[in-house]
DNA sequence: GAGCAGCTATACAGAATCGTATGGACAGCG
DNA sequence: CGCTGTCCATACGATTCTGTATAGCTGCTC
């Protein structure tokens, strides 16, 4: 039985794909360039599917065959990383690594206090935050846990719905006193709206929710920057109610005309159920996010 | 940057998990027992999460920590196997390995002629058939393509619906002439019904479709055995119309009272789109299954 | 209880792998 | 144009890893 080429070869293959050169890959992995070169040569010989790369003096360029392997190679790397995480502590311990995938806003604005409380109780926990708006793959184990705004419809995932976050338009009161307050939606024409730049999906969802919105005056795809712009009094933008309500200087704009809700789920791979720290963090995220959503329904005093 | 333990160590870890012993794992991988033992020891040292196995004179028993790693380890092995498959030929060639996951009935009764025609056109294709009724994981790449009877609701999958297969009750004419023909559903009480033994999901779906069915007289979870029993004249059972119609000796029983439809999808991982042979087999499955379903709507002559 | 079969652990020699050192090629820059 | 930085390919010595051989343990069978 031929069990294929050595797995170490696949590791350097992945590194070469990402680095674009043997030397770069060797630096990544703590090897030397000749070793990386030997690995690739051995891999090509073992596969017998022709060359994987075309060598040049400024690096290795992947052939079509190598490109077809790219995503699968990353999946293997993700699996290896997940193994290391899961094995970072005994399964029944409250120590070790947990990797959480969340959106930028949640990760920067909502999670820190939740995680702080969690780590105060369990100092051995190590949290890795993967801040990305593109939903990374839980099944592929790019992360152990995830907070999702779209319902994960996949088997093999442990899912808990925690409610819906209210969204609204907000502006700093200094901005409003400067640019003039707003009585009706028609007044928005005179105002600076903060929105997205190129993120087509977000733009479309905003347009779907509020079709008669004037076009964005300030554009960025970075949602944290949007929040900062609002707080700095640059204009009017979309904000989660619970986040806005923390700052008394932020004023809700046309709360009747512009509101939306965003459902929130916490998801975890089923296999992690028996790993105690994963379950612990899962429960902490559920209760923390529930509290966060609840805070949004109360106005600041 | 510490990039974790060597991937080869994970490979022997997986083998030890499956074999239950160092010696068995070594035989699987073409290594020797001392090497396997060294690998595990090195892995335990590298992870620092305590022992992965408790050694005994009759093998290695996984600890809870090791059990938590089992499924992820298999995912890594699946990724490695998928890499070997994808790299078994140049991406633009019509040769190489394609692994298909299908149900036992489809795999044994429907696919063979489709695959025969395909291989006649492209002799370089190597087909691996994974016959399992439990839907294996496409995202985890246990297989490259799959024929599914439930709609795959996952991103990153290329899905094509090919229609619905009609199901009905059938019996061999010899059986009916021996046991008496059937005029109404009440007559079924006197007859031998072929059905499932322990497969709770299948039993429930049958009961949902035909609530007033007498209990099964002949039981097996192996659907191929069910077909064989029907063909041998043992009794009445559920059969796909297109399969039944091939054999003039099979007679439809109460076609008005007992009928159902089973939707069929062909699914493939998105990443394989650019691999030409995968696309080829995908298209062949689509057209082949479409033809199969169409054949079910015509009675045999 | 002796014998057998299966397993793990250890010692040591051989083989495969790796790193160092070097040469050659190419692109960017002053 | 020459210099520099980066890259790949090759040769050779050192290290690491692997396999063989052996001892010890356990459970089963006769």
UniProtKB/TrEMBL annotation, chains A, B:
Positions of transmembrane segments: none
Keywords noted in UniProt: DNA-binding, Transcription, Transcription regulation
Taxonomic classification: Bacteria, Pseudomonadati, Pseudomonadota, Alphaproteobacteria, Sphingomonadales
Entry-linked PROSITE patterns: HTH_LYSR
SUPFAM superfamilies given in the database record: Periplasmic binding protein-like II, Winged helix' DNA-binding domain
GO BP term (any one): DNA-templated transcription
Organism: Sphingomonas spermidinifaciens
Pfam families for this protein: HTH_1, LysR_substrate
Matching InterPro entries: LysR-type_TF_proteobact-type, LysR_HTH_N, LysR_subst-bd, WH-like_DNA-bd_sf, WH_DNA-bd_sf
Residue ranges of every copy of the HTH lysR-type domain listed in the record: 5-63
GO molecular function: DNA-binding transcription factor activity; sequence-specific DNA binding
Family as reported in the entry's similarity comment: Belongs to the LysR transcriptional regulatory family.
UniProt key word Transcription regulation: yes
Protein name: LysR family transcriptional regulator
């Amino acid at each position: 039985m031929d069990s294929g080429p050595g797995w170490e070869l696949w590791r350097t293959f992945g590194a070469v794909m990402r680095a674009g050169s043997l030397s770069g890959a060797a630096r990544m992995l703590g090897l030397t360039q000749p070793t990386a070169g030997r690995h690739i040569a051995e891999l090509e010989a073992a596969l017998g599917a022709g060359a994987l790369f075309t060598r040049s003096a400024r690096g290795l360029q992947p052939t079509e065959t190598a490109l077809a392997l790219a995503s699968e190679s990353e999946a293997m790397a993700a699996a290896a990383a997940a193994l290391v995480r899961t094995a970072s502590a005994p399964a029944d311990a409250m120590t070790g690594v947990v990797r959480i995938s969340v959106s930028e806003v949640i990760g920067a604005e909502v999670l820190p206090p939740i995680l702080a409380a969690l780590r105060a109780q369990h100092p051995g926990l190590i949290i890795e935050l993967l801040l990305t708006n593109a939903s990374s793959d839980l099944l592929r184990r790019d992360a152990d846990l995830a907070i999702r705004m779209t319902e994960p419809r996949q088997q093999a995932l442990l899912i808990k719905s925690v409610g819906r976050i209210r969204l609204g338009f907000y502006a700093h009161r200094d901005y409003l006193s400067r640019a003039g307050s707003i009585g009706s939606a028609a007044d928005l024409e005179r105002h600076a709206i903060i929105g997205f730049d190129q993120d087509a999906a977000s733009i479309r969802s905003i347009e779907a929710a509020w079709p008669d919105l004037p076009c964005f005056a300030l554009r960025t795809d970075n949602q944290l920057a949007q929040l900062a712009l609002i707080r700095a009094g640059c204009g009017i933008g979309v904000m989660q109610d619970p986040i806005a309500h923390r700052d008394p200087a932020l004023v809700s704009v046309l709360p009747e005309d512009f509101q939306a809700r965003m459902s929130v789920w916490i998801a975890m791979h089923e296999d992690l159920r028996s790993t105690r720290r994963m379950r612990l963090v899962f429960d902490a995220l559920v209760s923390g996010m529930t509290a966060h959503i609840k805070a949004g329904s109360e106005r600041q005093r």
